[in-house]
Amino acid sequence: MEKKRQKRIDLAIFFMVVIVALIVAFALGLEAKTDISYTPYNGDWQHYNMFRRLLSGQTPFVDFPLVLG
Q1: Which positions ≥6 away from 38 have C-beta within 8 Å?
Q2: In 3D, which of 67, 43, 42, 41 has the Cα closest to residue 53?
Q3: For residue range 5-16, what is the model confidence (pLDDT) as tens digits?
Q4: Furthest C-alpha separation in the chain
Q5: What is the secondary structure of 5-65 as a DSSP string?
């Protein structure tokens, strides 16, 4: 009876840790997704910075040079 109860408690703790890890991962992913600043991340500027500048109204070759990575 005691082993069964301990096993159930261990299983509950495991699932709580998994749920907390998923919540933390979701929160960090959401924070990264909502940050659309012009600060380049590792490799991010090569793909998206040009589109961000165009959408903000800048003109290519006048306000910024085109960089192909």
Answers
A1: 49, 52, 53
A2: 67
A3: 899 999 999 999
A4: 76
A5: HHHHHHHHHHHHHHHHHHHHHHHHHHHHHH---S---TTHHHHHHHHHHHHTT--BTTTB-
CA Rg, the chain, in Å?
23
Question: Which pTM does this prediction carry?
Answer: 0.48
How many whole angstroms separate alpha carbon 37 and alpha carbon 8?
46
Half-sphere CA count of 42, side-chain side, radius 13 A: 0
Given pLDDT bands bounded at 50, 70 and 90, which one contains residue 41?
low
Sign of CA dihedral 35, 38, 44, 50: positive
Using the predicted structure, report yes or no on whether residue 25 has a pLDDT greater than 80. yes
Q: For residue 68, what are the contacts with CB-CB under 8 A and spacing of at least 6?
A: 46
